[in-house]
Structure formats: structure tokens, C-alpha cells
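Q: My labmate handed me this sequence with no annotations at all. I'd like to see what the chain might look like in three dimensions before we decide whether it's worth expressing. Could you predict it?
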Amino acid sequence: FRSIARAAPSPVAAAAPHAPGGLTREPGVAYLEDLALKPVKVTVIGEANIHSQIGGGTFLGVLRKGSAAEVLAIADNALRVRGTAAQGGVVGWVSPATVTPLKADFVESVKKNAQRKTEVDALIAKGEVALNMTHEEVSASLGKPQKKQMKLDVKTGRQEVWEFIRYTRVP
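A: Here is what I predict for the chain of 171 residues:
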């Protein structure tokens, strides 16, 4: 039995493969490093208590008004930031009300992309592909294609067809 899977990779730019930076992961949180985004800087607009967990946990310090912080992750009711408190550098969770607001469409986009990444990672783990996966995601899921075809059309531009052959033993 021979099956051929064809995947037309998406023209969307590929996200870099993620390598978590050692942060403790919390479910339902969008980590910017997973999405290969440039660092997002915010300014502290009010004294910001920083904690080890969303909604509390160990008190780590206070980010002073006017200081800069880098957003590392976005949750519904908190931001994970890296900043400087009185005792030195600190990473933890703060209330979004204590820093310059992030644009709502940016936050929504980050959350959608994080959800997509979760779904794509699950497909890759099962060796499956779906529409709109990037070249890199398809390769991570199925490996190197056995055959590639490229067509150039004035109207539609460049189109690539990758062929993957999988053999299945039938009893």
C-alpha cells in the first residue's frame, strides 16, 4: 500500500522553532518567545507588585513607577514581565493596570497565534499536517519530502508541491 500526501506550504512567514527559556509554564498563557515576537517593552505607570504566580503567589518585589519592563507572557488578567525592582532584576506577574496598556488587537492576535501554535504542535506530535502550515511545520511533522515540484505562473506566482510517501504494511 502506498499513500502520497501532498502539502502546499503556506506563504506566511514561518515562526522560528521555539525553545522555552526555562520559564515555568502556566496553562492558558500566551508566551511571546514561542511566537518569535520581538521584545515588547512597557512602562510602569503605577507601583506594580510583582508575584511568582498569576493572581498571587510569592511576593517578589515592586516595580517603580516610570521604570521599563519587558512583557514575556500574556494571560487574561496578568502579564509576565522582566523588570528591575529595588533588590535587582526580577521576573514575575503584574496586573495589566500597572503598566502602559497593550493594544487590544495585539493581545487578541497573540492569543490566536498561541492557540494556533498549540494546535500545530499537537499535529506535529502525531505526524499529521493541516492547511496553512508553514514549510518548517510540515517538515517537522513529515520529515523531508521525497519529491518537490515547483511551478511559476504569472497570475498566481510560485507554487510548490511536496510529495511524501508512506508505506503501510497490510496484514
